[in-house]
Amino acid sequence: MLSLMIFVYPVVIFYPWNITQSFSFPKLFLISLFCIIFSIYSIKKAKGVSVVTLFLILFFLLSLLLSVFVAPSKVYAILGQSARLTGLLFYLIFLSFVWLIVQQKFKERDLFKIFLSIILSSIIPLLYGLCEYSNFDFLNLEGYPGRLSTFFGQPNDYAVFLSIICLSTICFIYIYKRFIPLFYVIFELSFFELLLTYSRANIFGFFILFFSLLFFLKKEVLRFKGVSALLAIGVLVSIVLFFATPYTNPGWYGMGFSRQVGRVEDESLSQRITMWKASFDMFLKKPLTGYGLANYYPISSRFFDMSNSFFHWSARNMTFVDVPHNEFLEFLALGGLPLFVSFTLLVAFALYGNCISVFENKLNLISFFGFCATLIYIFFNFFVLSVSLFFFLFLALGLMHLSFKGKEIRLNIFPLVISVGCFCIFLYMGVYYNIDNGIYKINNNFQKVMVGTSALSFYPYDYYSYISLDDKYLLIAKSLPKSDKNLIEEMANSVERTSSLGLSLFPNDPVLYYYLGEANKLKGNYPEAKAYFLKSLEFHPFYEEPIIGLLDISCSYEDCRNSFKYANLLYKTSPDSLLTLVTLIRYNIKMHQYSDAKAFLGDIENLYPASPVIYVFKEFFMENTSSKPLS
Fold it and tell me: Pairing between strand 49-50 and 408-409?
């Protein structure tokens, strides 16, 4: 079993898959298979777990089940919302993994081999990170331009991994004093690439943990002055190279460095604070049950402070605001006190177990500081698959080191049943995503849209599939000539069917109500279309697309009744949006308010100086007004 941990677990961690961030069913499939083999091995070989550990796991599991029960969308709660995968199945497979690790009770030599295998296998993503930095993305992972992400989907996810590798190599260098040149190289690469992720919270957290670790190892640090001096020089060289990026790699600087490091304001922090406040307000509204696991969006939108225009919501920033970027507050808002307390107790006991294990063996510094690094991460972010593989490993090791007197409980069938069940479900979902999914391959082609529909009928529980299909249907319908009424009506009916099916699984979703409004507008059912647009705004009052739909209906079919109200609301919703500004220019032209239209054109020139619509509208004003065009 140890060999399985040594050779398979790093492969699971570093498996390169980057579809919609951590939405990686192959990884979950591998984790489930890993747990099945682990469970079968543990039936005869493993020991039991203490009553306290059993209580902690069961308390968390029952709290999860309660939050699923109260959730308005059970599909979200079980499978996970959007690309996050943090539904009931996600936690079940990791809880079975934690159970297996705790009852295995690895010895020092076993942990040495496991940690060593993870550090050595990190060479693969580290080397790929250098290729990514040199703009040689040969695997075409399509990460964040100008920020390292490699196999991890997001720079923040890669940053916490690099923090763990840096801290682990320091422990190996000073504790075992072997393979120092190799570990030194891994440390320097990890530290330099950590800076290139521009993940401010994780970098700041790393430095706190790094100096704390050096303080704990101060005797060894002072005893091996040559190694310590070499490490210090390497750190300084990495920092110098990092700030020399504008000169050493101008392309990288233009893509990411200037935007992330050169910014004075910190918008992401203010946005997180807004979401944290909304999460706490959600908890105050339902303190005992919460709103249901993985159901943060769209419920949270009712609690956002709309003085921040970023939260005047549209589809382009939905993937940022559909989680509160703090796992503790997410559990508090979605599961109430039971889920928050159960998770906090698990974390507290695991942290305590890792802490006391340090005094037994310094090798356990890796799990202690690694666990601290992941805690810093989930305080500013959310569970994703690659980070969870580390978090729950260190959580299990902390619980494993707790020594409670009394009888131990053996429930070997529990992880086996959970693993087999998750394996079957993830296999089904994985087949859909990797074989029969035409949705992400649609190129505005009617036949490919039909393929996407077939894929959706094969596996109907992916929220983004409905939005993707509706968008393509709507795009095709709007690109057709008005004389082709039959095909336009067919596309409108397709949008209506897809959105209705989506709403049966994901109720109260403003996007799907918006598409229903567009479908009815295409068919000429304007009262119904208006009702659906208003329904969409009922669930999110600052969603620009349905406001544009209402403005269009008002101007085209209601003699501009209430048009000013909708135009004013649209500007308040997204004053910096190109779509909003173009819509308001067209509206003011229709109302013969040319001075206002030119003012909005000036906003476009300031915000989007390269936009071709500037020249289109300037030409219109030259031909249709007596005033001179804007300079």
Answer: antiparallel
Residues 80-130: tens digit of each pLDDT: 765 566 789 889 989 998 998 888 888 888 888 889 888 988 888 898 888
Task: Report residue 512 as tokens.
Answer: 């799907």
Torsion of CA 158, 163, 166, 167, to 10 degrees: -150
Task: Give 408's strand partners.
Answer: 50
Quote the longest CA-to-CA distance of the chain.
92
Q: CA 520 to CA 528: how far, in whole Å?
A: 6
Q: What share of the chain is helix, strand, coil (3-state, %, to 5)?
A: 75, 0, 25
Greater confidence (350 vs 295) lies with 350
240: left (phi over 0), alpha (psi -120 to 50) or beta: alpha
**DSSP-derived 3-state class of residue 301:** helix
Residue-by-residue DSSP string for 462-480: -HHHHHHHHHHHHHHHHHS
Which residue is associated with the tokens 């392309």?
Answer: 251
Residue in 343, 340, 337 with CA at minimum distance from that of residue 98: 343
pLDDT, tens digit, for every residue of 200-232?
A: 889 999 999 999 999 999 888 888 888 899 999
- Is 13 in contact with 370 (CB distance < 8 Å)? no
Q: How many helices (H) and strands (E) does the chain have?
A: 32, 2
Instruction: Identify the three-state secondary structure at position 216.
Output: helix
